[in-house]
Amino acid sequence: MNKAFHSSGDVIADRRADYARMLAEGGDLAAAAELMEQALELAPDWAAGWDLLGGFEEKRGNLAQAISAWRRLEALDDEGVFGARLKLAAHNAAAADEGTAVSYVEALFDQYAPQFEQALVGKLGYRVPEMLDDMVEAEMARLGIEGFDKAVDLGCGTGLMGSLLRKKVGFLEGVDISAAMIAETARKGIYDSLQKAELVAALNARRAEADLMTAADVFIYCGALQPVLAALVPALKPGGLVAFSLEAHDGPEALFLRPSLRYAHGVAATRDALVVAGLEVLRFETATLRFDRGAPIIGILVVAQKPPVELTAANDGSAGGDVAA
Asked: Whole-prediction pTM value?
């Protein structure tokens, strides 16, 4: 599905929208917005049209008009495919939900799938899978792990992470919310199994199943980290590893929603969430994840471990006595 190009049902409105896109691409955002308003006079209930208008107004710095367009969009888009609520929340015009906007994320990556790797790796300098893989291999060497019986690559996308994991995993499963992404990676033959599912729902269906889980630039769409980790930890085998990335910020907030509609997580709050989830932090680093409009996006890279059975038993209080410092 390509949500941005849904027809209005009115040929003239569609033509005006096409011309408005051309004007916007050429840098004339004021003319694009004006033409888009004319198109919406012909098709006032066209959700994709309001989404386009809001985007034009935002890019030209006309935030009040963008918010007005997104409010109209929110009223028309019952499924949340266009992410109107997220756009309003990112500009402090609505309360932000702290969970995944499932319909929006699914539609976004269904649309993005064909050009995903070219855009992300070729244009934005994306190296998160390589960085996470290097960290996992370093911990494997330190812990004496020769390989993993089963790994689950959450938000597997087109297999950028999975292709690096393949050589050290017996059974590799990919999970993604987007059917188009699943179709792209299925053609590569990287994974032993692929599942289309929302992340937390997929995790809740598993118990002590994998000895490695990865999530490269996935939790940035999930909001609050603790509910995700609360679902993830029971799905890991005792002693299993999890490796993931987040976009970072240095403020006191646990997270906030950026205009990019991705969540940035606080460094201190992320450490706290890992402790609350019962994970031992093995590696915790900040790094440049990629570039966005020429600016570096700073993020957090984490490798953590679920305590082995013997540690859990030793620390659950059943043995009695005090533990010396």
From this structure: 0.87
